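Run AAA family ATPase through structure prediction, thanks.
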Amino acid sequence: RKFFSPLKGLGQYLRFLFITGISKFSQLSIFSELNNLQNISMRDDFSALCGITEEELLTQLKPDIERMAEANDETYEEACLHLKRQYDGYHFSKACADIYNPFSLFNAFNSKEYKNYWFSTGTPTFLIDILRHADFDVRALEGVEATDEQFDAPTEQITSPIPVLYQSGYLTIKGYDRNFQIYRLAYPNGEVRKGFIESLLPSYVHLPAQNNTFYVVSFLRDLMKGDVESCLERTRSFFASIPNDLENKTEKHYQTIFYLLFRLMGQYVESEVKSSVGRADVVVQLQDVVYVFEFKYDGTPEEALAQIDSKQYAIPYRADGRRVVKIGVNFDSATRTIGGWKIAKAD
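Sure, done. The structure for AAA family ATPase is below.
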């Protein structure tokens, strides 16, 4: 207040004043004496102010893309797609152009490697604590709906983790329903999704992050070889290694661990949990095969397979020529790991 209060009285000497930061403060409570500010945070005409647009990338930075492609043995088109998947996706208004993260983009051009540079600046420990204390279902971060008042609220009015996640760049605008004035928020890109989930997982399993990464890579290699049995054996071993002193042993807790593990795998392959005709627990899509997983907590593998069939989870993937494999898995709460599974090919 001591800094901002004198600014209004000095207005005749100030031609331009720009205030920015990740937290939003109410003008009423914090800036009561500086009430002539214009909030441009969500205006279309200012939405591309603090990033690199796709047009700027493909024109002014084209030589950098060409060098990136050459260094990674890719075509120019493949490099553009790789950069877009990894660093694009930010939107700060209803009709905002695609915005790339400049910090990560320029670091990638400098090193000529597609790494997760943004998370090297720090681990979002305070955000993870907020999510855990709010008992928030992290699976909803793939696409949560909110009004602008809900996700762009002043700091002192926040009752949900969504505003902090949006303001700090872990969520961004992915769609807007004008009829209901509802925004859809989700992770902006692969870099943020992977980095955030990697940070979340240790708080759920109480295991070192490097252990989790090893397991995920091993799961993926098994599936790429078509060895579902080995993948599930590894998954069983992973859950068995989780300390027995976890305070939260609910079905939701273990469902979240399954989700985080397989969503990390989705950084290397396409992984989704939704379809147009239902909601499968996990769908892992590889080049020549699609794996549809359904997990039952203290149920049976047969019940899980029956749900895949009754809810028609596999139908959307049958038309593209790939093999579809259904996997029903039982999670045993007594042993805190996978009790059994059954594998079947889709009809």
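The two ends are 67 Å apart (CA to CA).
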